[in-house]
Design goal:
The protein has about 425 residues and is of the alpha/beta class. It folds into two domains: about 5-325, Alpha-Beta Barrel (TIM Barrel); about 335-425, Immunoglobulin-like (Sandwich), CATH 2.60.40. It contains ten helices and 22 strands. Strands 10-9-8-5-4-14 form a six-stranded parallel β-sheet. A six-stranded antiparallel β-sheet has the order 15-16-17-22-19-20, with no helix packed on it. It has a three-stranded antiparallel β-sheet with strand order 1-2-3, with no helix packed on it.
Amino acid sequence: MQKLNICGRYLFWEDGTPFFYLGDTAWELFHRLTREEIELYIDTRTKQGFTVIQAVALAELEGLTVPNPYGRLPLLMTNGVPDPTRPDTEGEYSYWEHVDYAIRLAKERGLFVALLPTWGDKYNLLWGKGPVIFNAQNAYLYGKWIAERYKDDWNIIWMLGGDRPLQSEEHHRIIDEMARGIREVDQTHLITFHPMGETDSTDYVGNRQYIDFHTSQTGHSVGKSYYSMQVMEKMAKASPKPYMDSEPRYEDHPACFRAELGYYWNADDVRQNAYWNVLSGACGHTYGNHNIWCFNTNPTDYFPFRWQDVLNHPGAEQMKYLKQLRLSRDYASLVPMPDLLVENGYGMGQIVVAGGVDYIYAYSPLGQSFALELGIFPDAKALRAFWFNPRTGEETMFGVIPSHGRFTFVPPTQSKGQDWLLILEAW
């Protein structure tokens, strides 16, 4: 099987075929699901066009002390503490055999697994259950061990971090040493970093050579979710490497973590971040559902659904249209083109414009009108104009316009949930 390579800001297969990272956060996949449930989840996401599943080996929700559905824990104890140098691999249905099963099932379906060796509370108990078990020495040994186990599986992307900041020299050493252990064994698979909410990996590991591409967590509050374009721009300025959002607003997540507000982020909200980010030059995008990441089985105000009941919620079904759009025209040439926009809006009304060889994309998140200053295709006789519907994936030609000058475009419908994307093609 081919491996993934970095070319400029984007990911490609070895033969030059573009790879669009369309991820889903299934953080507790290994810890909470049976094999039959894993198959249901992976088969559904495969049909929906996802390309990457993000999951954690040492899980956040008491992953060291509460066993998986087969009664197994990931680590043996040393002096009463889970020991990352002693993974429990013995016997049928061991914890790590279960992880093997999920990774290889994903491989059979053509999906990558962005594998977090551990959640961040295992080295920085800023909140959560922990316990803290990592130091620099055992992080290196654990990195070597987990890399040895999965280095021959083509569908691995290593994702360090895990939603906690690196606040001390020791935290940095733990991540650096875990990466060193992985790289000594595995020089093939890409490595990235999942940061805590409202930060990005350039804040923590921006100068690390082992990082192949950067990610942000624009998160589930309003602090960065309405400014994800600016977060993408920040990462682009901080590093020449590819970048993307590995945890934006989740579908069905209480806005700002407050169920009492009575508003849950929905498909309209998650589409906004997806199109803002990708047209800001991101190498892909991660979707998430609040009831999927933890595989919730007990509906409450804060987790309103069973995970099985949200697998086909609209946001998950609509992400494939973004991937199809992105792959439909010259892939490597797409760059942000904010200067084409005459005037921009604010907050959820921000327009984003990008273009590549012989095409322009402009996304209107509320269906509001906007004006572009055209003229970037000097040899074009005219421009063919299309409206692309992010809710259905339908692309409809509506006119032919001159290739130069200022033009105002009015999407077919307006209001929240009536987002549209303009496509202009040089002719």
